[in-house]
Amino acid sequence: MFTFQMNFYVFASLLCLLVVFAEAQQQHRDHRPLATDAVFFDISIGGKPAGRIAIALFRGIVPKTVENFVKLSQGSVKDGNGFKGSIFHRVIPGFVIQGGDFTAGDGTGGHSIYGIQFDDENFKLKHAGAGWVSMANSGADTNGSQFFITLDATPHLDNKHVVFGKVVKGMDVVKKITQLQRDENDKPFQEVKIVNSGVIQLKRAFRVNVPQIHFMIFSSICLILINFCVAEETEKFTNAKATDHVYFEIAIDGKSVGKITFALFGDVVPKTVKNFVEFAKRHKPLGYEGSKFHRVIKGFMIQGGDFTSEDGTGGDSIYDGPFEDENFILTHWKPGMISMANAGPNTNGSQFFISTAINDFLDGKHVVFGEVVDGMDVVRKIENLKTVNDKPVSEVEIISSGVLNTE
Q1: Is residue 227 within 8 Å of 382, Cβ to Cβ?
Q2: Is 351 labeled as catalytic in the residue annotation?
């Protein structure tokens, strides 16, 4: 039965939703960016036609970035200078799909029409929802040919990646891509290819709707209230109590930066917790001590636990091979939750990830088994490291790990 406090939050959340709905009907026309150009991608999945994605572009806001994208849409992999024949090499459901690497096809290549890289023009456009097209980069002023399409609002990418377009047709195709099975590097097992690309001749420029800033802020407050309600009810339902505590001492480029302490919920997922605890007691190549965090995606998660290969392809379990998903009772309802990384259902080993955001789109797909109770500042240090292909440029090592006696 809800308490008075819960009733208040539920009421406030519902009121928020009503106001948000009303606000959505009142968007101001003069804030909408003007689409001056458009391109198309004809997509195949596993060699079979999957449909067309049409992207509106905003030359009046980011002319240099749009010119780069338009010219590359007219080129091909065959001539080494364009998107036709290239693939989407990275897919993260609920976050982004990424392509544009027409030279290497793995996120390490591509180039711009201006040479290798060019500067960030401006950050006037925001990652305001699903379907916004933005430049992928490896830091400030490192734009080339790679781009990504957002699958949700990603405000943590604002002022870091240049937004230059919006999908105006074909989000159903984008969603098909997000549903594909992927390997440990988020590359789809089925090839997602741009079989044809080119320019769409517009009869006239047109405006594209974008949520207003005050609308987005208000929506965020509503989501916080709703998540608060869900979190409290989830905690009541699961009655999750910590059965074990594990620590990792972390070094970045050989220098200790602190400890991360985890509370683990063995009453909810005993098999998963036992696996994690055992590896926390052991040294590489049979455990976590001495292993690395090999994958970091800011605003999403940090991943480790591959103590055999350290690139996301290895690791093991204490059960001699992959083990099944126990359950999905615990959820990715806040930053700091720790979950099993996998390559699909029932493929758990030793790899894990720590969420650095609310990742509820992973619920029902990855087994949550604990949370960070101390050292979230260390997690944030790792999250903010420079990366190439999601691998930290600095070495992030678990120099010590073990089980804490909290009795």
Answers
A1: no
A2: no
Among the listed residues 300, 307, 352, 369, the single catalytic one is 300
Q: Which of 57, 180, 330, 362 is catalytic?
A: 362
Considering the candidates 88, 118, 293, 353, report the single residue annotated as catalytic: 353
The Cα 156–Cα 359 span in angstroms is 14
Residue 353 annotated in active site: yes
Contact 78, 236 (CB under 8 A): no
Superfamily of domain 240-404: Cyclophilin-like (2.40.100.10)
Give, for all 407 residues of the chain, the pLDDT tens digit: 344 444 555 555 556 555 555 554 444 445 789 999 999 999 999 999 999 999 999 999 999 999 999 999 999 998 889 999 999 999 998 889 999 999 999 999 999 999 889 999 999 999 999 999 999 998 899 999 999 999 988 888 899 999 999 999 999 999 999 999 988 788 999 999 999 999 999 999 999 987 654 445 555 555 555 555 545 544 444 467 899 999 999 999 999 999 999 999 999 999 999 999 999 999 999 999 999 999 999 889 999 999 999 988 899 999 999 999 999 999 999 999 999 999 889 999 999 999 999 888 889 999 999 999 999 999 999 999 998 878 999 999 999 999 998 66
Residue 366 a catalytic site member: yes
Token pair, residue 157, equals: 């990418």
Active-site residue, 282 included: no
> Which of these CATH numbers, 3.10.450.50, 2.40.100.10, 2.50.20.10, 3.60.20.10, describes 29-207?
2.40.100.10
Q: Quick check: is 52 catalytic?
A: no
Whole-prediction pTM: 0.67
CA atoms within 13 A on the CB side of 51: 11
**DSSP 8-state assignment for residue 197:** E
279 catalytic residue (yes or no): no
Tell me the C-alpha to C-alpha distance, in Å, between residue 229 and each of 3, 11, 13, 215: 11, 10, 9, 21
Which positions ≥6 away from 256 have C-beta within 8 Å? Answer: 249, 250, 399
Active-site choice (303, 348, 351, 359): 303
Active-site position among 342, 348, 351, 359? 342
- Annotated catalytic residue 74: no
